Amino acid sequence: MSDKPSYLGLLNAIAVGESRGHALLDCWSKTTRDESLAGVLRMVAIREAEHAAAFTKRLCELGYSVREAPRGDLDEKLALAQSPGGDRGKFESILGYGRGERGNDRSQNCSRTSRSISRPASCLAASSRKNATANGN
Predict the structure, then answer these.
(1) pTM attached to this predicted model
(2) DSSP state for residue 104 in the 8-state scheme
(3) Number of domains observed in the structure of the chain
(4) Would residue 32 count as lying in a domain?
(5) CA 41 from chain center: how many Å?
(6) What's the CA gap between 10 and 16, in Å, rounded?
(7) Residue 73 vs residues 48, 70, 79, 94: alpha-carbon distances, Å
(8) 3-state SS of 22-53?
(9) Distance CA 86, CA 94 (A)
(10) Do the domain assignments include residue 109?
(11) How far apart are CA 109 and CA 27, in angstroms?
């Protein structure tokens, strides 16, 4: 029987995923023309980086290091995030929001009563724009 903790693979997968999320969102934040969305993307990217660092730190404390996983479609998504294309297409292609749901777009389902931490960034950006307008910005 191995002395390795059974949850090492999970810690590694989370560290890798959070790091990749940071890269994607940070990249996108630099190309969007919507300043409210850019701010939200930067904030979420920073959180992703913090999470990646926390899980990487824990792996190091256990005596292990992060092992990169296959990149899958990451390079394609990074290229899209860096492109000058519209944000709606990026929400659909990178995050999967609104795909195939024209007229019933999940990215526009921004219930104020929702306590979900996974509310789409578009909802956060819309809320941010409303607050900025209300504050005269």
Answers:
(1) 0.70
(2) S
(3) 1
(4) yes
(5) 8
(6) 10
(7) 19, 9, 10, 10
(8) HHHHHHHHCCCCCHHHHHHHHHHHHHHHHHHH
(9) 12
(10) yes
(11) 25
In a domain, 3, yes or no: no
Is 48 or 103 the better-scoring residue by pLDDT? 48
**What is the mean predicted confidence (pLDDT) over 42-52?**
98
Q: Is the pLDDT of residue 57 over 90?
A: yes
Report the distance separating Cα 85 and Cα 95, nearest Å.
Answer: 15
Residues 56, 63 contacting (CB under 8 angstroms): no
pLDDT at 100: 63
Block residue for tokens 């899958």: 72
More confident residue, 104 or 44: 44
pLDDT digits over 62-111, tens only?
Answer: 999 999 988 899 999 999 999 988 999 999 988 888 766 554 444 445 54
Domain span including residue 30: 8-134
